[in-house]
Specification:
7 strands; 28% helix; OB fold (Dihydrolipoamide Acetyltransferase, E2P); four-stranded antiparallel sheet; alpha+beta
Length: 112
């Protein structure tokens, strides 16, 4: 019984994680709006499986919010990567909460 429960939990976790986009490349633009929401746009569209809420014009972008934990870190990483031309691999959350029904939210990223 515990093996079945473990398998169900793994499938549930993968459902969320597997329904997310992955963006890899150079940061092209960093935008911060007056309300603290922001957008990082990359030089290539997302791979993986971005959620259905992502519109075609934002397939190369991830959203963040300075009010959220980690939002300032996303901004710092994106600005540094843009300034230095350093490639970034960023993962989406599988949700479009920051800009509803427009673009995926930033989960985590790695500057290479």
């Amino acid at each position: 019984m515990s093996k079945i429960l473990a398998l169900c939990l793994m499938v549930a976790a993968c459902t969320q994680a597997c329904a997310a986009g992955v963006l890899a490349g150079k940061v092209i633009t960093v935008r911060v709006d007056e309300d603290g929401r922001g957008v990082v746009t990359f030089d290539a569209a997302a791979t993986g499986t971005p959620p259905a809420c992502v519109t075609a014009s934002y397939r190369a972008s991830l959203a963040f919010n300075l009010a959220d934990p980690g939002g300032k870190g996303v901004l710092a990483m994106a600005l540094a990567a843009k300034a230095l031309g350093t490639p970034v691999v960023a993962y989406g959350t599988g949700n479009c909460n920051t800009y509803s029904a427009v673009m995926e939210d930033w989960s985590y990223g790695v500057a290479n």
